[in-house]
């Protein structure tokens, strides 16, 4: 468990813009987009995590509950609500997330992998946020690497439309 979450000024609300294969690395990535602006944040995930998110994006049901469905069902059973998910940190090229829960007026913060937090957020229909420091770090990290490729990727991600996302769907 963690202390109370950061202030709204330190977080940017995002939505999942899409789930696609990175055209360069052929790895699945979740593309988060700033609701109030143009910032995008790609988060590379494993194939199993991507499939769990794809099932929810496409509203496909499975005959038996998948792991994230099970977690949602357990939380409901204990009258606990997922109030928000925050991509909270970026250290050594690894993203960290926090799932914020509320039960009986008590708030709990649970450490999670971003892919699990996002899959649960979609199933719980709760808002998703990214710490501003994460957006700034991700931008600085990509600029510090191969600036040409990262700038090109960022521009490509920012300009994707729904038809483009369909081309690269999982």
From TrEMBL:
InterPro entries xref list: BFN_sf (IPR036104), Bi_nuclease_dom (IPR003729)
UniProt domain BFN: residue ranges: 11-142
Pfam family, one: BFN_dom
Protein name (database record): Bifunctional nuclease family protein
Organism: Terriglobus aquaticus
């Amino acid at each position: 468990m963690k202390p109370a979450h950061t202030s709204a000024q330190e977080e940017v609300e995002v939505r999942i813009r899409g789930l696609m294969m990175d055209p360069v690395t052929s790895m699945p990535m979740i593309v988060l987009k700033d609701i109030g602006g143009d910032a995008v944040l790609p988060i590379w995930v494993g194939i199993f995590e991507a499939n769990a998110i794809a099932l929810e994006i496409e509203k496909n049901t499975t005959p038996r509950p998948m792991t994230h469905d099970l977690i949602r069902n357990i939380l409901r059973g204990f009258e606990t609500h997922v109030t928000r998910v925050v991509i909270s940190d970026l250290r050594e090229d690894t993203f960290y997330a926090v799932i914020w829960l509320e039960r009986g007026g008590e708030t709990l913060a649970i450490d999670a992998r971003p892919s699990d937090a996002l899959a649960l957020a979609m199933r719980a229909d709760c808002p998703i946020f990214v710490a501003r420091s994460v957006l700034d770090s991700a931008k600085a990290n990509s600029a510090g690497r191969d600036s040409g490729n990262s700038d090109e990727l960022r521009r490509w991600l920012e300009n994707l439309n729904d038809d483009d996302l369909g081309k690269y769907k999982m």
